Amino acid sequence: MLENNQGASKQSSDQQMQELRDIVLGDDGQYVTEKIKENARLMVSEVLSEALHDREKQDGSVNTVLLPLVEKSVETSITNHSQQFVGYLYPLVGSLVRKSVTAFITEFLEKTNTLLENSFTVKGLKWRFKAWQAGISFSQYAASQTFAFRVEQVFLIHSETGLLLNSVSYGLDTGTDPDLMSSMLTAINDFVSDSFKPNQSPSEQHLNVIRTSDFSLLIKPGPKAVVVASITGNMPQGVANQLQQTLEEIHRLYDQELTNFNGDTVPFEHTQNQLRNCLISELKPEHQDKKKKPWFAWILVSMFFIGFGYLGIKQWQAHKLLEKVEQLDNEPGILITDISTLGLNKVQLNVLRDPAAQPISEWLQQQSIEQQNIRLKERAYLSLEPRLMQLKVKGVLKQFPNIQVDWSLGYPQFTGQTSISEQLRLKAELTTITGLNLQSNWMNTLSIEDSATDPLDDPQLLKEILDIKVAEINRLHVTFGNGESELSSNAAHVLTSVAQQFKDLESLTERLRLSISLIIMGTSDMSGDHDYNKILSQVRADNVKSKLQQLGIDEKRLNAIGLGVIDLNTTQKDARMVLLNVVYFNTAKPIINNFE
Amino acid sequence: MMQKKVCLLGASGVGKTSLIKQYVEGIFSEKYLTSIGVKIDKKQVETKSGQVKLMIWDIEGIDRYCGFQPKYLRGASAYIIVSDQTRSQSLLEGVEIQKMIKEVTDIPGLLAINKSDLPEAWHWSQKELEDIQSGYEKTFHTSAKTGENVENMFTHLAQIIAE
Is the ipTM of this complex over 0.90? Predict the structure, then answer.
């Protein structure tokens, strides 16, 4: 019964409580909710930034939530208003590109200019000297001269431990260790606040400014952290305000981290952004007013381009000259062995030139090429070029104004009127042209004038004929295979011709009352034993001699000699041969025709 | 990186500054010590829990007539009290200093019995010494002259506070 009563009374008191709640708070806390809703905007706005920061730091969820929302809204905007976006971006893209290019060039020019100015001008050198005198770096001294004031470094220090939480600087090496600097500053502050406490004042004393002749330390103490700025020059009030704002912001954003600081500075890495706001500076009026043109840099850049352009033009000219000179190779009897540019505007030219070819200097003059631009190295050689043959023949014909030559058949055909003696002289002249290989039928087209006297009565003419025929035999030789002494069919053919010509000579020398003989000289190359080669060369000469005997030449007129090895690099290949030399005697004294 | 503040205290002339000199290359000159009563050095130590940067506050020698600036202890993670085994008085003063420390903070401390290169010249009984040592995490017999145990002591200190 008692239990029932108790239960009933508890139930009624709960009910009363609920009724009371409903009266005060409204149904389901309606009044409270309404009241909160009324001020919701104000309440949320007061803590919105801090709450976002804390939550982002806690689990990074703010970024995760906002990212898709932002992406979606940007996407919707672009889809629905693409034309507008193009309109917005169009003027931006061009100006962005221009701006970044301009910024790059300007920065480059200014940096170069500053470097040059600081290195080469009187002011730069003076500053360097003064910085050296003062024992500070040049950049520090330059900053002190250029800025009315500048915040060089900003430190964020944990109040209780004096440990450095973060620091930023202009990048100048001030030689101070920020860790030690923070701790010392805290110790000095502790020392000062304790030593100069006025009359047991309950409030703790703090250092606010430490000023020396070179710099000031501006200290802004907060309950959990201290912001310190190291400033050069005359510090304006604005810096103190900025420091105060930064300190408050850091306290607001990093309240938890500052309270729970255990020596780990990682959570304070992002205070960099806030601290950077305190790195303010102001140029001295004289540096502010004049918007200097970077003359030094402009001069340097212009010089660079002018120099580069000059070199380019010179290079191009040298290349053109080279191309022009290369045409020399097409000239008959001239062979370019090496050609290259030399320095800026010269050409190195190495050529082989047949003495009969056009002189190089003459060619250069014809092409209007200045000879001083060509460094020429010329060596002589014999050219067998058909075009040069024509030139050589033409040269010979200058002595024979009545004789013309026609090359239309590929070989020279001589026409015109001439005498026998002239024809013989022409023949003699043409025989001297190496590589022409004169054929008797080339002169069949010449018409010979009748002569009153028999030319064969003229001893002078006979002598000329003799010389030509001797030269013709002397030009001939017989070659042999390696180690061989037997005559080849070609050799037999040559010797038949030799025998015939020699017989002609015999009759000619009889008329001139001369005695004639033929020296047959056998040679060998360097391969094999020296003594053997000597014998081999003799056998070769003997074989030629016996062949000529067979062909009807009197043995008395033949003289075979073995010369042995001909030790010349140039004759290496063709050294296995028999050479012929006609010798004729006038009186007791012989006339010897040297073979070529 | 983890940074920790530690303090070195002890009677005058026990060799606190010499101990730090032995341990780190002093950067600030000693004039700070004589003018404001503290000299600060730093040293990076490798512990099992990673690198720790020790900011070592060398607090000026204290004797019975003058106390020390308790604010210098603020935020410290540990302390070392240095005594000189050639002077009985120095250990007694160490005890006094520890009492003062205990009044303001409850951080771990080490006892350095310095000048171990010289013959012991105090007359503390083993029992008395043990009683005093029980108030510390660990005791090190050090010599600033030979370097004996100096490195060990600071490494141990870093290890305690890094944990």
Answer: no
